[in-house]
Amino acid sequence: MADEQQVNGAAQDEAQPQQAFQIQRVYTKDVSFEAPNVPEVFRKEWNPELSVDLNVRNEKIEDSVYEVVLKITATNKLGDTVAFIAEVHQAGIFTITENIPEQQRAHLLGAYCPTILFPYARECLASLVSRATFPQLNIAPVNFDAVFAQHVAEQQQRQQEAAQQADA
C-alpha cells in the first residue's frame, strides 16, 4: 500500500509542472558618472542635497526568460550647483516558467528581481562616487514590495477612472 501511495504521488508530481524561478545572470548594463562643476565644488562647504530616482523595467527575451533592469540615478547638488550625477543600469536575466500565475510573475519581475539587483547597483554607485573622491554615498534600502504594491494600486485606480469616464 505504501508503494501505491508513492507511485500515485509520483504520478501527481509529473502531472503538475514545477513552478520555477532562477537567476541566470546579474550584470551591469550601463554606468554613467558626471561631475560637471569639478574642481569648484571641492572648494565649497559640503552640504549636499541628494535625490535618488529608481526605475524598473523588464522585457521578455524568450520563452520563460526575462531581462529586468533596475536604473538608479543619484543627483547631488550644492544649492543650484550640480556636484555629480551618477547612474547605474543594473540588470539580470531570470527564468520564470510560464506556469507561474500572471499576478505572481508580475510581482517577481516588479519587486523580487529588483530586490536582488539593488545591492549590486548600490555598490556600483558608491564605488563611482568614491573614485571621484566625493564623500561616501549611502543609499538606503528600498522596499520594492511596497513600491510594487503602490504601482499596482495606482494602475487599478487609473483603470477604474477610465472605466467610469467610458460609462459617462
From TrEMBL:
Pfam families: SecB. Signal peptide: none annotated. GO terms for biological process: protein folding; protein tetramerization; protein transport. The keyword Glycoprotein does not apply. It is found in: Cytoplasm. One of its GO terms (molecular function) is unfolded protein binding. Keywords: Chaperone, Cytoplasm, Protein transport, Translocation, Transport. Belongs to the SecB family. Homotetramer, a dimer of dimers. One homotetramer interacts with 1 SecA dimer. This is Protein-export protein SecB. It comes from Pseudidiomarina indica.
